[in-house]
Design brief:
Strand order of the largest sheet: 3-2-1-4-5-6-7
Mean pLDDT: 90
Shape: globular
Number of strands: 14
Number of domains: 2
Radius of gyration: 22 Å
Distance between the termini: 31 Å
CATH topology of the largest domain: Rossmann fold
Helix content: 40-55%
Low-confidence stretches: none
CATH architecture of the largest domain: 3-Layer(aba) Sandwich
Strand content: 15-25%
CATH class of the largest domain: Alpha Beta
């Protein structure tokens, strides 16, 4: 039965792939450049020059930058292995190449079409496949299982919204997700969802979120961003449609009262930069593009990837995007790890446990609406002691959870012993 589902899945790829490619090339100009970048890797054609390496191979697969940052904390523990890191997005691949020097080979994940994926496995020849969070690809899982390659999911999560989809298609997914040998879930809720989808046939354990393990010693100074000592720096990170204009309006109102505020707005998707800049111009707000490196205005529109961590580091207060709209929020641990007060809306279901921990420990605050966000920012501007106290509570929350990484590393090593 599993083979039948795999055949059907691959037939769907054959039928719809040409349509998707045609749409990207001729109608989705924003995606075309990313799609064509390192195009051959998408077909399992790699310039892999490690054939003489005596080290055994671990294949780690992430989707985007967030997952790459999560695995940074575990890579140093596997120096005895040849690490192959595959990714889905162009931004994640560029980040890994420029800032992550712990993997031996970095490339795009090939299309999950059986012959292409099998070619990748034959090229990489891994002894273990490590999947980060929710990277489940049927052909990939089937081939790894068929080759008796141990499959482990780390920081495993299934959001409430995604679970509804998996549940409706459980007749299909249950057959493939159960091929994963060990699932290290980041919360009890995630573990329960995995138990449902696997009929409790897998080994499922709970580690907590390994993204808690963040490096808080960045070599960045406020003056690097033209910030003065007394500037109040607010960052809205990974914002979505519906939030950008809220941040812009708050800045517009505040700038009339405070001339020492600096607002950084970093949209989740850079394709929205032109839209946001038009809103700023329409509202007659002077702003600087981050890429210009000349911040002579108090509103800075972040138009490049890979800088948000640094901006969080030099900020006073941070807002987590995707949380005042129905997008589930982004990772609040990133600014919290730098001792910053964290604000977010009520829609944090993608990072429910992390948000709840920050609220419980006094390091994070929920904002109900745009007016509430305005009031809380104003309160922070007028009370520096409050900024320090809530920021320290956020940092303590992060530090209290760092055993999660050690647990994950230990579990991977336990399973490696059985495949040597």
């Amino acid at each position: 039965m599993l083979k039948i589902y795999l055949i059907i899945y691959n037939l769907v790829i054959i039928i719809f792939s040409p349509i998707i490619v045609f749409f990207i090339i001729f109608f989705a100009s924003g995606k075309k450049k990313e799609f064509l970048y390192k195009f051959l890797e998408r077909f399992g054609i790699y310039n892999l020059k490690y054939k003489n390496s005596s080290k055994k191979t671990l294949w780690i697969h992430c989707a985007s930058i967030g997952e790459v940052r999560a695995v940074e904390s575990i890579l140093d523990s596997f120096n005895d292995y040849y690490i192959i890191l595959t990714l889905v997005t162009k931004s994640a691949r560029e980040y890994a190449e420029k800032k992550l020097h712990k993997a031996n080979f970095i490339a795009f994940l090939p299309i999950d079409f059986y012959p292409i994926m099998r070619k990748a496995f034959n090229t990489f020849n891994p002894i273990m496949l490590i999947l980060v969070e929710t990277e489940f690809w049927p052909s990939m899982l089937y081939i790894a299982s068929h080759k008796n390659i141990k499959i482990i999911t780390i920081n495993g999560r299934i959001s409430k919204k995604s679970f509804k989809i998996y549940k409706k298609l459980s007749f299909f997914w249950i057959r493939f997700i159960r091929l994963i040998n060990v699932i290290i879930a980041k919360s009890e809720d995630d573990a329960n969802r995995f138990r449902f989808l696997t009929n409790k046939n897998n080994e499922i354990v709970i580690s907590g979120n390994i993204k808690y393990n963040k490096n808080i010693t960045l070599n960045i100074k406020r003056c690097d961003y033209s910030l003065r000592k007394n500037d109040f720096v607010f960052v809205a990170g990974s914002t979505r449609k519906g939030e950008d204009e809220i941040i812009i309006d708050i800045y517009n109102e505040m700038s009339k009262k405070f001339d020492f505020i600096k607002f950084f707005l970093a949209p989740r998707h850079l394709s929205r930069i032109s839209i946001i800049s038009k809103v700023l111009k329409r509202k007659k707000i002077k702003f600087s593009f981050f890429s210009s490196k000349i911040f002579d205005n108090n509103f800075i529109l972040v138009d490049i990837f890979g800088e948000l961590q640094n901006i969080y580091f030099v900020s006073d207060v941070c807002y987590i995007g995707g949380s005042m709209v129905e997008k589930g929020g982004q990772n609040p641990i990133e600014p919290a790890a730098y001792g910053k007060p964290v604000l977010f809306g009520k829609n944090m279901y993608n990072f429910k446990v992390e948000a709840e921990n920050l609220i419980k420990n006094g390091g994070g605050l929920i904002v109900k609406n745009s007016r509430d966000l305005f009031c809380k920012i104003s309160e922070f501007i007028l009370n520096k002691r409050l900024v320090l106290d809530i920021g320290q509570n956020a940092l303590k929350t992060v530090k209290s959870q760092k055993d999660f990484v050690d647990f994950t590393i230990k579990k991977i090593k336990e399973n490696l012993k059985n495949v040597q």
